[in-house]
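Page 42, continued from yesterday. The earlier attempt failed because a stray header line got pasted into the input along with the sequence. Redoing it now with the clean sequence only.
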Amino acid sequence: MKRLVVALVSATSLLVSVAAFAQSTSTPAATPAAAPAQESTSTAPVPGAKRAACQSAAKALKGQERHDQMQLCMAQAHLDCLKQAIDQKIVGPQRKDFVKSCAS
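This time it went through. Structure tokens are written below.
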């Protein structure tokens, strides 16, 4: 049962990262003249969506396993957001703000 849940969470993380990558590669081509600050506001994901996805993925688990799964899922979400910011060439304080708003 644990392996099924871990496989399901892994597949969900993979799908989220593929969707984020697809979104990040199509957005800059559509708006090449946009400034980095404008890109971060126009492509910012819904706040709390990734956290809610992690909570629903860890819902079936209990105790330490649930805590560990939440930490792993949120770390993966943070990494996905950082990759998205790098792909969009967001730098400086805007990158920090983008990753923080994206992952939370």
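Notes: DSSP finds five helices and no strands in the chain.
Reminder to self: strip header lines before submitting.
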